[in-house]
Amino acid sequence: MNRIKSGSGSGFGIGSFILNIAVAIYLIANGILGFSTNWRGQHGGEFRTMIDAIGITGDLANILTIVLSVCALAAGAFLLLQLFKVVTPITDLLLFVFVIVWVVFIVIIDIINPLQNQNKFELLPYLLQLSSHLMVLGALISSTKRISR
User: Fold this and answer.
1) Which residue, 35, 45, 87, 97, is most buried by CB atoms nearer than 10 A?
2) Within-domain flag for 23
3) Looking at the DSSP assignment, which residues form a beta bridge with residue 23?
């Protein structure tokens, strides 16, 4: 029985292709948000939420937010490059490193932060957030040859 595959002939299905595009867009958008500032002058994005959950403040918080945002931008860009078969020797290594960063992100944002804010916990928004973070992790793992093969 023949399976329908995407036009690249690599066995990379259309669902995986769309998921990886979505994750790349998600990472790039979060990276850009890390450089933006809100009306209080703080950097935005989920990476700042992670840094705030840890309790880091001041210049170190700003530096870490920027570093994580650059990592997200790079991971999104390399994910797109890999999807479109642009071969770079460090893509797999960088995606593997970002998988580790993303696991730490999930632990802090989706486990530690809700435990610290027990009185503000709402189940459905939490499940939406957790599922999107796990989808990103799954797409990163499936795109990383070091883990998925």
Assistant:
1) 45
2) yes
3) none
Q: How far apart are CA 92 and CA 148, in angstroms?
A: 11
pTM, full prediction = 0.77
**Over the stretch 19-70, which tens digit does the pLDDT of each residue have?**
889 999 999 999 998 888 765 555 678 888 888 888 888 889 888 889 999 9
Question: Which single residue is written with the structure tokens 């840094």?
Answer: 51
**Number of Cβ atoms within 10 Å of the Cβ of 90:** 10
Q: How many independent structural domains does the chain possess?
A: 1
Helix axes 46-54, 91-106, angle to 10 degrees: 50
Cβ partners under 8 Å of residue 61, min gap 6: 48, 51, 52
Residue 36 lies in a domain: yes
Q: What SS3 state is found at 96? A: helix
Question: How many residues appear in the chain?
Answer: 149
